[in-house]
Amino acid sequence: MRQNVLNRRQWLARVGAGLGASYGRTRAQSDEATSSTLVGGWLEPFVDPLPVPRVLQPRFKRSGVEHYQLVLGEFRQKLHRDLPPTIVWGFNGVSPGPTIEAKRDCSVVVDWVNRLPLRHRLLVDHSLDGAGTDVPEVRTTIHLHGGRNRQEDDGYPDTWITPGHQQTTHYRNHQPAATLWYHDHSMAITRLNAAMGLAGTYILRDPAEETLGLPSGAFDVPLVLQDRVLDARGQLVYAVGANQRSVWMPEFLGSHILVNGRVAPYFNVHPAAYRFRLVNASNARVFQLALDPGQEFVHIGTDNALLSDLVSAEELLLSPGERLDVLIDFRGRQGRRINLINFAPAPYPSGSGLVPPSVLQFRVGSAYEVTPPRNDYPSRLGSLPPLSTFRSTRTRQLTMVEAMSNGHESHRMLLNGARFMDPATEIAKRGTVETWELVNLTADAHPIHLHAVHFRILGRQRFDVRHNLLTSELKLIGNNISPAAEERGWKDTVLCPPGQVTRIVVPFDGEPGRFVWHCHILEHEDNEMMRPLIIEG
Ligand code: C2O
Ligand code: CU
Ligand code: CU
Fold first, then answer.
1. What is the pLDDT of residues 482-528, one digit of tens each?
2. How, if at all, do strands 266-269 and 273-280 pair?
3. Distance CA 175, CA 235 (A)
């Protein structure tokens, strides 16, 4: 069971009756000190069509390798009907960038050409390690999240380039079909580059998957979720509020949800089954999603591969960095409007910010205009090795802490008490399997992400936090809580709830090299909650 702080029914009760017509009008507000002030006011949801990112065509193909080019630039993009175009950063003139579609075991080369301006649009906090006044303000290094690549292709945080330069990466795609995504990973400014829009999807396909008869083509749609604060002129805001002296904030929580770069859009669908690839590309927002009127999601895949079986669920929990592959069946729903709503508290799970609920509206058409995909779901999907087959030879206990020494100025988020530049401690031998116990001593949940490897979740267990803070001993409470059915596949990001130890089993079977592991709340990642991960060959 996942940390369900509030289920959809409780949420509906809290927000009040007559929700269907009124929740879109709930004025976005949050009493969290950490959340930004809403500047632009209320925007009517579901008035813009959902953009579906176009699939990028390779520039050429040489000896079986497809070569792509993505140009990072600044441009204006319409985010909502009632707003003037917003200055954003993206790829080839769009944010999120075009989708790269790759095939399993077929190599891809991408040239990431940085044509961004020299000054950042958002305020850089020079007190953060790695973002001093001695380094250029605008830097980028693109990372393929979920990809298992060589270290030189992984976008290590300090291998950034500046405007006018180009980063070339080689992706071999020796891994199962899944939804990966690309985004900036620059040292200490990742949160700002992400907030400007530097992200996109990378869909890895496998011919074997095509035999399953899952919805495909126009029925297979990536949904990139991001939250933003917009001012009255429609421009992006990233600031603490009135007091701008301290630029870093613990979590950036936007007042509007963007899906594929549009504020709460609508999507015209056929009365057919669809496959949606949800990507949480927000800086810090965890989504807890449901359909209104109620209807189930059918989970088919986690971050890095298909599940073994289909899993039906009423709710969907998606933390920053995570992906979920789901089917939604609109058969028999002709003429209906079905809303995808978010009811996660922010910060998750105990914050009191419940907004914004409007994410996306599905408008189901009355007839097929195109051939519908096969109507039946496959009964089995991928194959998953049972957890009992993993022979772990080492267990590491790793803590998450919030360290505040000199008041707000030196507020740091740490993994195992260490900063990013401290000597590496997570050094694993290639070919071995380790168990990691992620001990969360803070009040919020942290989505922990490992580069270069994929892992499985063993479970979560509560522990005595006070006792741990005093003695550093792990005094466990109760039993191991198994991961939710939809979490039982291959993962690269796992949500670690407060007061719990989250256990994962990690086979280090990829490339040797120097990588990173970190919290995917980008404000945390930029402020020391990131550590080297070394795989010795
Ligand atoms: Cu999605 Cu290290 O990143
Ligand atoms: Cu990653
Ligand atoms: Cu964190």
1. 999 989 999 999 999 999 999 999 999 989 999 999 999 999 999 99
2. unpaired
3. 39
Q: Angle at the Cα of 494 (from 493 to 496), degrees rounded to 5? A: 140
The closest ligand to the CA of 517 turns out to be 1
Q: Which atom of ligand 1 is nearest to the CA of 530?
A: 2
- Rounded distance between C-alpha atoms, residue 255 and residue 226, angstroms: 10
Q: What is the pLDDT of residues 410-466, one digit of tens each?
A: 688 999 999 999 999 999 999 999 999 999 999 999 999 999 999 999 999 999 999
Helix or strand holding residue 263 (H, E) = strand 262-263
Whether pTM > 0.85 for this model: the answer is: yes
Kindly tell me the sign of the dihedral angle through the C-alpha atoms of 266, 268, 272, 278. Answer: negative
Using the atom order of ligand 1, give the atom closest to the CA of residue 493.
1
The CA dihedral of 213, 175, 173, 63, to the nearest 10 degrees, is -80
Residues 6+ away with beta carbon under 8 Å from 458? 387, 435, 480, 483, 503, 504, 505
Instruction: State in Å: Cα 133 to ligand 3 middle.
Output: 25
Supply 103's token pair: 């095939």
Q: Is residue 531 lining ligand 1, measured as CB closer than 6 Å? A: no
Tell me if 506 sits within 8 A of 494, measured CB to CB: no
Dihedral Cα 62, 65, 66, 72, nearest 10 deg: -100
Q: Nearest Cα to 285, choosing from 313, 314, 255?
A: 255
- Provide the b/e sequence for 407-435 (b: ≥16 CB within 10 Å): eeeebbbbbbebbbeeeeebebeeebbbb
- Nearest atom (ligand 1) to Cα of 525: 2
d(CA 440, CA 400): 5
Return the residue whose CA atom lies nearest to atom 1 of ligand 1: 145
Check if 323 has its Cβ closer than 6 Å to any atom of ligand 1: no
Tell me how far apart the alpha carbons of residues 128 and 528 are, in angstroms, rounded to a whole number. Answer: 8
321 lines ligand 1 (CB under 6 A): yes
Say yes or no: CB of residue 148 within 6 Å of ligand 1: no
Question: What separation in Å is there between the alpha carbon of 27 and the centre of ligand 2?
Answer: 35
Q: For ligand 1, say whether the CB of 183 is within 6 Å of any of its atoms.
A: yes
Q: Name the residue with the closest Cα to ligand 1, atom 3.
A: 145
CB distance 447 to ligand 1 below 6 Å = no
Strand partners, 323: 279
Judge if the beta carbon of residue 456 lies within 6 A of ligand 1.
no
3-state secondary structure 486-534: HHCCCECEEEECCCEEEEEEEECCCCCEEEEEEECCHHHHHCCCEEEEE
Joined tokens for residue 187: 């040292």
Query: 142 alpha carbon to ligand 1 midpoint, in Å?
Result: 10
User: Ligand 1: distance of its center to the CA of 320 in Å?
Assistant: 9
